[in-house]
Amino acid sequence: DYSQMQQVFINIILNAETAMLEAGNGGTLTVTTQKVNNVVRASFADSGPGIAKENLNRIFDPFFTTKGVGKGTGLGLSVCHGIVAEHGGRIYARSRLGSGATFIVELPINAH
Fold first, then answer.
1. pTM for the complete prediction?
2. What is a GO molecular function of this protein (predicted)?
3. Which of 69, 84, 96, 101 could be cross-linked to 91 through a Cys-Cys bond (beta carbons 3.0 to 4.6 Å apart)?
4. Which residues pair with 108 in a beta bridge?
5. pLDDT tens column, 7-36
């Protein structure tokens, strides 16, 4: 559904904005889309500080956050993961600490 996917994309964008502001480098967010076979892929690549390797496998876990107390619930990416899964897709991230992060959302193209 449109509003749910909008929530996913807004959450990814706001997380990127927060990371880039905290890094203090102004930042760049590059959004790309492409069709690969029967899948549409949206990639969000930011120039923030990146995600530590030990955290990368946990970022979609409920209540996991690296933000300070009172600055995040740790639910945003977990909710995104659930919404994307409900739509038959997947969401994942690639990152290296110090080199930004890229979040990728892949959704099947349903012929109706």
1. 0.88
2. kinase activity
3. 84
4. 39
5. 999 999 999 998 898 888 789 999 999 999
